[in-house]
Design brief:
globular; Rossmann fold; Serine Threonine Protein Phosphatase 5, Tetratricopeptide repeat; mainly alpha; five-stranded parallel β-sheet; 414 residues; DNA Cyclobutane Dipyrimidine Photolyase, subunit A, domain 3
């Protein structure tokens, strides 16, 4: 069996922390110059040996960004691991950027609702949309990526950019419908990187700068797996109209402080499933609560693969937390279930991680309000990684990138 077959046979890893850590260990030797030279190639779903495939685990924090960064540094040093570390930090940059501009997420939701209303009324648009999401466009590469996304819950990052560009500029479909399609089907579907990535392709994120999928680029970086006719793709990518400029960044909200000794419920959600590193020490955790299924990510049915991954990831996080504190992990469908669990276990507080802008935060806000209305005190923590990095996401990635060495030093990564 070749190395490529070995890597591809079980990628991405199973949706649990142990499998993710095994993949970190297996891929560490490739996090240096090999990654820098080959990361942009999409060899297809049968060969992912050139990339880590750990983004679903990072998305749910089954594996931590700091753990990936430390593995790369240990194996290759800061210079050799530079490109891999930058790619790890891109996701953090997108999250920080959106955290300081929450109205961009609100605008996306509003524009998506409008697009769905038009879709319901416009039969021609509905037919063109169905042709795209069913992989019947006749553009071989696009149709193959559609099938791959639905069947595997994953796409190479380069393929995501090509797909989005073809969706917007060749197929002339609303970008928000494409972003929703991705968010529902990707195992690593992240509201920040997904929304802002689609905005970037369309010329909304860096205003006026678009990304055009070119046949020659697709042929080169798929090593000839796809060789589209240049005439089948858009020859230009005019920027989408900016309905409302992105606001200036707001201040980062610090995490709540936690004092040991308070009898508490540990509230797990799919934005952070590594409670072992929340810094709770010998906290008096009375029980663990979590949703039995993930929060819906989009406007319609979620992708089966992404749904299954997130569901199993939640179960894995809950089981680890249960084992760590020696308490029950209780699946709670709503706030009333959580309140009942707290009262039955003598808890007066709830401790959780502050969710990021996106569906989890949208769902968590009314739940938190109901918990507090019942008399429970809710503490929302923020990781040191986020607290250290997010303030640098005020402009483009260059400013953020130059801060990485200093932030790593403050975080004790070497």
């Amino acid at each position: 069996m070749s190395q490529a077959d070995l890597f591809a046979s079980d990628l991405p890893p199973e949706p649990d922390r142990e499998s993710g850590l095994k993949r970190v260990e297996a891929f560490a030797a490739s996090m240096g110059r090999a990654y820098a030279s080959k990361r942009n190639f999409d060899f297809g779903p049968q060969d992912r040996s050139n990339i880590s495939c750990l983004s679903p685990h990072i998305r749910h924090r089954l594996v931590l960004e700091s753990e990936l960064a430390q593995a790369a540094l240990s194996a290759h040093g800061s210079e050799g691991a530079e490109k891999f570390i930058q790619e790890v930090c891109w996701r953090t940059y997108w999250k920080g950027w959106l955290e300081m501009r929450p109205s961009v997420w609100s605008d996306y939701k509003a524009e998506l609702a409008d697009a769905l209303n038009v879709l319901a009324e416009d039969g021609v648009l509905r037919q063109r949309y169905a042709t795209a999401i069913e992989g019947r466009t006749g553009i071989a590469c696009f149709d193959a990526w559609t099938a791959e996304l639905i069947e595997t819950g994953y796409l190479h990052n380069h393929a995501r950019m090509w797909f989005a560009s073809i969706w917007i500029f060749t197929l002339d479909l609303p970008w928000v419908l494409g972003a929703d399609f991705f968010l529902r089907h990707l195992m690593d579907g992240d509201p920040a990187s997904n929304t802002l990535g689609w905005r970037w392709v369309g010329g909304l994120q860096t205003v006026g700068k678009t990304y055009l999928a070119r046949a020659s680029n697709i042929e080169k970086f798929t090593e000839g797996r796809f060789a589209p006719d240049p005439q089948s793709l858009a020859s230009s990518a005019p920027p989408l109209p900016v309905h409302r400029p992105a606001p200036e960044p707001s201040a980062i909200v610090p995490g709540d402080r936690w004092t040991e000794g308070r009898p508490a419920v540990l509230w797990l959600h799919e934005d952070d499933l590594h409670p072992e590193s929340w810094g709770l020490g010998a906290a008096d955790i009375r029980c663990v609560v979590f949703r039995p299924d993930p929060v819906s990510r989009g406007a319609s049915k979620p992708g089966e693969v992404a749904w299954r991954f997130a569901t199993q990831a939640l179960e894995d996080g809950a089981q680890r937390a249960s084992n760590l504190w020696g308490v029950q992990a209780l699946a709670c469908q709503d706030a009333s279930d959580m309140i009942a669990a707290a009262h039955q276990n003598g808890a007066t507080h709830v401790v959780t991680q502050r969710p990021f802008q996106g569906p989890v935060a949208d769902h968590a806000q009314p739940v938190q309000e109901a918990l507090e209305a019942s008399g429970l005190r809710v503490a929302r923590l923020t990781r040191d990684w986020d607290q250290a990095f997010h303030p640098y996401a005020t402009k483009g990635f260059f400013k953020f990138k130059t801060a990485i060495p200093d932030v790593f030093e403050r975080l004790g990564l070497s």
